[in-house]
């Protein structure tokens, strides 16, 4: 989180007071203020206000139907790429199985056309081919199930909608390391600028504190686009979908 007023980073700092539940009251102070520099900009914001605004901003982005549709499109590509090695293996198994089926028919004809010791020897060869055929069929069935299971692990459009539109509620259920990981996937930089209230721009994230006003800008990953970072975070949303279901969150209607 960068202070664009002086170019320094913001650092979390405890005020020494606590909330009613005993949680320390944290602030984000500009490094120049913490170091008590001569030309300090004095920027200081309550951490809870900043964090709430960040989550609300991401939640608002997630309500955009185009974002969800883009995530679903990316999901389809993820499914295709992630199962390609398995599908290639299945093709190889199917090819070998067709070959063994042809061999088995030939061995059966040979066995029926001869008698005695030679017939027994041919029968043994035919049984070996039949055994390999069974092994191939088992492998094919297993790999087919692997593809189905893998695709089920990836979120559907409904799952993505549930995670995105309830981002703030789900976010609160995550442990701090998970929260940090998820935000890191989405946000490249947070820029804070101290402004006069008269200069506040419409549709911008404004934080008011102690008669001072600050404008917050979220710079998302992938060239500050809104859709791309959410697509990048899809693996995490896959995990969030089960949490959304357990908590009974309803997804946004895609109709």
Structure, described:
Keywords: Coiled coil. InterPro entries: Zn_ribbon_recom_dom. This is Recombinase zinc beta ribbon domain-containing protein. It comes from Pelagicoccus enzymogenes. There is one protein chain. The chain has 255 residues and is of the alpha+beta class. It contains nine helices and seven strands. The chain has helices at residues 31-34, 47-62, 65-113, 116-153, 157-165, 167-173, 176-186, 227-232, 234-246; strands spanning 2-3, 10-18, 24-30, 44-46, 187-195, 205-209, 212-220. Strand 6 and strand 7 (212-220) form a beta hairpin. The two termini are 37 Å apart. Mean pLDDT is 68; it is low at 222-232 and 241-255.
Radius of gyration: 30 Å
Q: Average pLDDT value?
A: 68
Got a strand count? 7
In percent terms, what proportion of residues is strand? 15-25%
Topology pattern, helix = H, strand = E? EEEHEHHHHHHEEEHH
Strand arrangement, largest sheet? 1-5-7-6
The share of residues in helices is: 55-70%
Can you summarize the main beta sheet?
Answer: 4 strands, mixed
Secondary-structure-based class equals alpha+beta
Q: End-to-end distance, in Å?
A: 37 Å
Q: Report the uncertain regions.
A: 222-232, 241-255
Tell me the overall shape: rod-shaped
Helix count equals 9
Keywords: Coiled coil
Organism: Pelagicoccus enzymogenes
InterPro entries: Zn_ribbon_recom_dom
Protein name: Recombinase zinc beta ribbon domain-containing protein
